[in-house]
Amino acid sequence: xxxxxxxxGFQFTVRxxxxxxxxxxxVITNICQAGLTxxxxxxxxxxxxxxxxxxxRPLLYSFQASLPRLPVPRVEDxxxxxxxxxxxxxxxxxxKQMEFLANDxxxxxxxxxxxxxxxxxxxxxxxxxxxxxxxxxLRGRGPIMVNSNFYIMDLLYVTPTHRQAARAGNxxxxxxxxxxxxxxxxxxxxxxxxxxxxxxTQMERMFNTTRIPGIETDSVQHLSDRxxxxxxxxxxxxxxxxxxxxxxxxxxxxxTQFSRxxxxxxxxxxxxxxxxxxxxxxxxxxxxxRMKYFSQGVNKxxxxxxxxxxxxxxxxxxxQGYDATSNSLDHYAKSLLHGKCYDRWFDKSFTLISYPNxxxxxxxxxxxxxxxxxxxxxxxxxxxxxxxxxxxxxxxxKGDVNKCLPQPSRLQWHIAKECQNVIETSYLSAKKIADDxxxxxxxxxxxxxxxxxxxxxxxxxxxQLALQLAQFRDQGEFCLTYESSMTRMFRDGxxxxxxxxxxxxxxxxxxxxxxxxxxxQRLALFQKAADKxxxxxxxxxxxxGIDRHLFCLYIVSKYLGVDSPFLKQVLSEPWKLSTSQTxxxxxxxxxxxxxxxxxxxxxxxxxxxxxxxxxxYIIVGENLITFHISSKFSSPDTDSWRFGQHxxxxxxxxxxxxxxxxxxxxxxxxxxQLNNGKKxx
Length: 681
Hints:
Elements: H1 3-6, H2 20-53, H3 75-86, H4 92-107, H5 110-123, H6 129-138, E1 150-153, H7 164-183, E2 191-192, E3 196-197, E4 209-212, E5 219-222, E6 228-233, E7 236-241, E8 243-244, E9 247-248, H8 251-263, H9 283-293, H10 297-308, E10 312-315, H11 328-337, E11 350-354, E12 360-364, H12 371-389, E13 409-410, H13 417-435, E14 437-444, H14 449-454, H15 459-475, E15 481-486, E16 495-499, H16 503-513, H17 519-541, H18 547-560, H19 565-571, E17 577-581, E18 603-605, E19 613-620, E20 624-632, H20 640-680
Parallel strand pairs: 6-10, 10-11, 15-17, 17-19
Antiparallel strand pairs: 1-12, 1-18, 2-3, 4-5, 6-7, 7-13, 8-9, 11-12, 14-20, 15-16, 19-20
Helix pairs in contact: 2-5, 3-4, 5-18, 7-8, 7-12, 9-13, 15-16, 15-17, 15-20, 16-17, 17-20, 18-19
C-alpha cells in the first residue's frame, strides 16, 4: 500500500571496503543467506502436506511447495517496457537521453548484474522479497508513522455495540480464534480468482511480531505463541493475559478486563504518557534510547512485555466513525493513521484501535506483510464478531462474567529525564508530520462495480483511468503513477508496480479535454487504454513487471560497486501519484445482498510525495466505491478535497461516455425494428 514512499531515493551502503572481489563475496554471501531462510520455512509446509495427504481438506500451506519461483525477466524486456512507460512523460530530448542511458546499461554492466540475480533466483525461493523487506522498509531511517504504516477501517454503516469494552472483547477473542487457526494452518488456502493458489508465508508473522529499531537497520522479531496483549489507555500501559486454565479468555471475560482498564483512574508515570512516540519518530534516536534506557531493570521488563505481546491494543477516548452529515471519515482516517502520535505502538505488526462509541480499526506496520494480508484477518474478525459471537440486548458480550479474573497489571517504567527529552523530540517531529497530512476519505455512490461491469471493462482499469483524468485536471500535467499489484502466485511473493500512466491513458485523457473529440472517439481510446492497463496488470502479477527487476539489479550494482547512471536515474524518479486497491477477499463470510449495510470502508496510507497524492480505494459490492486520498498541507500544489472533486467528476464523465454509447445503440436498435416492421408490412 505505502511502499512507493519508501521505494524512492532510498540510500544503500555496503560495509566492506576494498576491491570488487570482496564486494562480489558480499553479494554471494547475501544470496546464500537468502537461500538458507528457505529451509526454515519448509517444516510448516511439510506438516501441512502431511495433513493434506492424510485425507483432510486442503490447509493454509497445502500448496506452498507447488508454487513456482518468481522468474527473473530478460533485461531486454524490462528495459523495453521501462522506456515505453516513461515515453508519455518525457519530451523528445529527455526521452532520447533516457534511451541512451538504457541502451548503454544494456550493452555494458547489465549482463554481469543479471547473472547474480539468476544465481539468487536458483538458490532462494524469491529473488526480490528479502531485499525488498530489508532495503525498502527496514533500512529506512525516517519515521514509519504516516510514511510507511497503513490503516484499515471498521464497518461503514453498522456498529454492533456502542460499548467500547464489549466490542474490544469480541474482536480480541475473534483474533485469538484466527491466530489459533493460523498456527494450525487451518485457514483455507488463499487463491487468486478463487482457483489459483497464492503464497501464504506473509501470514506467519501476523501475531507476536515487532519491528525492532537499530542504528543502521531495523529487524523483525517474531516469537512463538504469546499469551498476553498490552493495552494503552490515557497514557498508561497494561498487560492483559489472554489465557486462563489452558483456554482463551471468553469475550465476556475480556470485556471485564478492558472495563477495568477503562475505569482505572491512576495517573501515568513520568514519561509514560508519550512513550510510544519513540516508535513514531526517527529510527536512530529510538534505537539509541532503546539501548541506553531500556536494556535493564523494569524498563527492559516492560518493553519486553510490549514487544513480545500478541499485538497492541489502544483504547481511545474520542469517538470516530462515519457520519453522513460531516467530514467524519477524514478525522477517522487520520486517527487510524497517526492518532496523537503517542497512542499507537507503530512498531507492532498491528495496533488494534478501539473507540468509545464501539468503532474499531487497525494501524499496521508494513515491513512484515502487505495490506491484503491484514485485510484477510480483518474480514474474518468482523464476520466472527457480528455473525457468530454477537451481543446481548444491552450490548454486552455474551456469556457469564468471571469475577475471579486477575486484575490487568500496570507496566512499570523508570524513565530518566534525558530519555523524556528524547521522547519529546520524537513526539514533536512526529506531530509535525501528522499535522501536515491533508486527508479526504469519501464515498462515491453514484455507481459501482455493477454498472462498470455492464460497460464490459475492468473496474480497476476504469478507476485508474479516472485517476489519470483527475490528475491531469488537478495538475495540468501527467506524472509517474504507481499502482500496487501482488505477486503472491509465486513463492514468497509480495508486490509489483503497475505503471498506470501509459501512452494509451494519456491519449484518452487528452481526448476527454479536447472539445473537438467525439464521444465515440473518446470511448474507443478509453477501451484501448483499459485493455493496455489490464495487460500491464497481468504482466505484473505473472512476474514480468518492470520495477522489482530494476530494483534488484540496482541492489546488486551497489554490492559490486558498479556505478550505473541508468539505474540511479530509475530509482530516484518520484511517484507523484501512488495508488492501491483494497481487495475484498472472502466474500463468503458476509452476504452483502442479504446484509447490505455490513460493508467495510477499506483503508489507506499517508502521502507518498511531498507534492503528490496517495489514493487508496475499495470497490464495495455493486454500488459503492470508497476513496482515501492523502497529500500534504505544506504543498501549495496539492489539495486532497480538490483532488476528490476531480475524481468524482472524472468518474461521472467516463460513465457518460458509456451512457451516450448505449443510447446510440438503443436508438439504432429502434430504427432497425421499425425498418424490419416496414419490410414485414
